[in-house]
Design a protein that fits this description.
- InterPro entries: TrmO-like_N, TrmO_C, UPF0066_cons_site, YaeB-like, YaeB-like_sf, YaeB_N_sf.
- It contains three helices and twelve strands; from the N terminus they run E-E-E-E-E-E-E-E-H-E-H-H-E-E-E.
- The chain is mainly beta.
- It folds into two domains: about 140 residues, YaeB-like (Elongation Factor Tu (Ef-tu), domain 3, Beta Barrel); about 80 residues, RelE-like (YaeB-like fold).
- The strands form three sheets. A six-stranded antiparallel beta barrel has the order 1-2-7-6-3-8. The protein has a four-stranded mixed sheet with strand order 9-12-11-10.
- The chain is globular.
- The mean pLDDT is about 90.
């Protein structure tokens, strides 16, 4: 068997830290699937406008296949302390490093790079290879009676997010027209508390960083809230 990608994801997540744990949690995360020339054919998408969401079948390219597969993993949901079987998880360390995400699609666009499918609520790293897309069919794909196992729904209490004066000035320079929805994206990502579940082992750590688009976002955890301190072009730090 051989599978070739149909295209690659271009997303705001240029680093694994900060990517939401599931799709749809950060609606400000808009991305596009840039189709390779062989698959950049509008007729291949005829009828997709009738579906609001699609399944994206992708490859965990940043972790595998170099890392190989593991029969047991430590899910972040369990704080990295307990092990479960890899087939009882969505971990990337699989015999075949394939993942799936159900995301909203916003239609096709033609631009300088060719044909792309716009996506929203993505949880994929920039550059992720995509093997296929399929329409999400609610009556067959949504199973409200299904058991969650250890993957309980996220808590409704969101982490409060604030911006320092310096961060606000940086934001005005980084995204002056709001085209990237950078402020909304930062708020939604940080409100999910992107820290790994095992961070309670390091109660004194307060300063963190993550990369969104080409920006390094620095933030501090204090008094139960995340305060964004600076937003700097990544190449400005080199």
């Amino acid at each position: 068997m051989r599978f070739d990608p149909i295209g690659f994801i271009r997303s705001p997540y240029s680093d694994k830290f900060g990517i939401p744990r599931q799709p749809g949690l950060v609606t400000a995360a808009e991305a596009r699937l840039e189709l390779l020339p062989a698959f950049a054919r509008p007729e291949a998408f005829k009828g997709i406008e009738g579906f609001s969401h699609v399944w994206v079948i992708f490859v965990f390219h940043a972790d595998c296949p170099e890392a190989g597969w593991k029969p047991t993993v430590r899910p972040p949901r369990l704080g990295g302390r307990e092990t479960v079987g890899v087939f009882a998880s969505r971990a990337p360390y699989r015999p075949n490093p394939i993942g799936i995400s159900a995301v909203e699609h916003l239609g096709l666009i033609e631009e300088g790079r060719g044909l792309s499918l716009r996506l929203r609520g993505i949880d994929l790293l920039d550059g992720t290879p995509v093997l296929d897309i399929k329409p999400y069919v609610p009556y067959a794909d949504a199973l409200p009676q299904a058991g969650n196992g250890f993957a309980v729904p996220p808590e409704t209490t969101a982490l409060a997010v604030r911006f320092s004066e310096q961060a606000l000035a940086d934001l005005a320079q980084a995204d002056p027209e709001g085209r990237l929805r950078l402020r909304e994206l930062i708020v939604q990502v940080l409100s999910q508390d992107p820290r790994p579940g095992y961070m309670d082992r390091y109660p004194n750590r307060r300063d963190f960083g993550m990369r969104l688009y080409e920006f390094d976002i620095r933030w501090r955890l204090e008094n139960g809230a995340a305060t964004v301190t600076t937003i700097v072009q990544a190449n400005a730090l080199s």
